[in-house]
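Translate structure to sequence.
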């Protein structure tokens, strides 16, 4: 066995080991603050839940920019996080619609009330000690409207059992998000991400007065009564512009910039349509699809074994490995499985078998022409490769087109089909060209068959 074959075999063993680990019931990933469970994510049509179509509430001739739609989508995603459903999906559909899917939720009023939040952004002093991000507070806007306002000191009340309860703190705002005129993500000289902002004339004066008198204090940023950031005032901000620094990644900086840019949505939306999908229909569909897929896979594997004999059995093993890798990738990304997504997976399984059939037919031709088994294996893969390459490239391009179409028009069914088909085709190339070939090479390095009819079905 050559060094190259040995290397490929080790890679296959490592991949199979990883597949087994990912598919163990208790497996999960914990890397620092990154936590990912490895459960299969089921889509709306399989798990049941709710779909909401949101439409821009402006005259048809009003211009709505792509950036406004993307920002609105991000704001809706942030608001939906409070529902506690990790698989919520929002996507822009065309120029004026956003489609939201909430697997597992059927309370229409709860979902719509969250999406219709006011989105009030406020800047509140916190003194020297910041309140933890994510804490719910009461924001007092009285002083902004000419009233009187103080930051009350609350005394914990005692429960009957003697334990203390803490009231929700009330904080006075010095400014709202309406005084922000420009917000964007920039980088400092060291390449760290920060949020740059500019203020209106009124906001410039407020910031100049407050920051000059409170250097070193915390000026909290609160959205819908929830603390989202607690930057410290490093110096007086008197020019009407400044930066918010912190341990930002590009994604977190962009998310905060959008929240600052639009305390409320950039354009108004109305709920154009909402519907509830029952979980009973989804579970029945999933069960029937799995049964049909298993029956089909069994028949195809039986055909491969009977028609191509030993290479066919190795191809069957490669297909099992292909299925394991594919399911593992779905869990790692993660991919939300829908009925259409399962169809894409099954179709890619057929493509994986197609590649093996092309290879094995070429091998049979070489054996009939008097080639040795080792030569036939090598030439079978070499001469079948152009056909495999061209057909799979065409399918991959088609998948990308379908994905673009689904993204542009909110066709989640098409998008799910395209994603699973693309991943399946890519993985099938790995199993057909590496797994099948490596296992055949190892086998026929050790076994020298003489009865070709029994071993290869010729």
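Result:
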């Amino acid at each position: 066995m050559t060094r190259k074959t040995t290397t490929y075999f080790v890679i296959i063993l490592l991949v199979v080991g990883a597949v087994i680990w990912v598919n163990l019931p208790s497996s999960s990933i914990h890397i620092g603050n990154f936590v990912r469970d490895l459960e299969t994510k089921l889509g709306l049509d399989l798990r049941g839940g709710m779909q909401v179509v949101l439409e821009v509430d402006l005259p048809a001739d009003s211009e709505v920019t792509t950036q406004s739609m993307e920002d609105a989508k991000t704001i809706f995603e942030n608001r939906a996080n409070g529902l506690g459903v990790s698989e919520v999906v929002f996507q822009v559909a065309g120029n004026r619609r956003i489609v939201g899917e909430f697997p597992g939720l059927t309370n229409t009023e709860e979902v719509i009330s969250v999406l219709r939040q006011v989105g009030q952004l406020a800047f509140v002093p916190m003194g020297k000690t910041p309140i933890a991000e994510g804490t719910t507070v009461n924001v007092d806007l009285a002083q902004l409207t000419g009233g009187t306002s103080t930051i009350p000191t609350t005394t914990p009340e005692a429960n009957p059992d003697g334990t203390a309860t803490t009231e929700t703190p009330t904080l006075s705002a010095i400014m709202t998000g309406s005084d922000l005129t420009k917000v964007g993500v920039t980088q400092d000289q060291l390449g760290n991400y920060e949020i740059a902002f500019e203020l209106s004339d009124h906001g410039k004066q407020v910031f100049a007065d407050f920051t000059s008198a409170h250097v070193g204090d915390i000026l909290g940023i609160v959205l819908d009564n929830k603390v989202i950031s607690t930057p410290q005032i490093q110096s007086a901000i008197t020019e009407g512009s400044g930066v918010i620094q912190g341990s930002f990644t590009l994604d977190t900086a962009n998310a905060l910039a959008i929240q600052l840019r639009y305390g409320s949505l950039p354009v108004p939306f109305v709920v154009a349509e909402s519907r509830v999908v029952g979980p009973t229909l989804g579970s029945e569909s999933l069960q029937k699809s799995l049964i049909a897929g298993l029956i089909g896979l069994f028949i195809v594997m039986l055909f491969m074994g009977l028609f191509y004999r030993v290479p066919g059995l190795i191809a069957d093993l490669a297909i099992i490995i292909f299925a394991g890798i594919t399911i593992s990738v779905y869990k790692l990304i993660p991919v939300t499985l829908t009925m259409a997504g399962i169809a894409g997976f099954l179709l890619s399984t057929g493509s994986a078998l197609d590649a093996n059939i092309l290879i094995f037919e070429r091998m049979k031709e070489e054996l009939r022409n008097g080639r040795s088994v080792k030569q036939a294996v090598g030439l079978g893969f070499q001469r079948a490769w152009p056909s495999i390459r061209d057909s799979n490239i065409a399918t991959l391009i088609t998948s990308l087109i379908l994905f673009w179409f689904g993204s542009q028009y909110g066709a989640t069914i098409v998008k799910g089909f395209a994603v699973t088909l693309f991943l399946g085709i890519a993985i099938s190339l790995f199993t057909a060209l590496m797994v099948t070939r490596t296992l055949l090479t190892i086998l026929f390095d050790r076994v020298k068959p003489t009865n070709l009819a029994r071993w290869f079905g010729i």
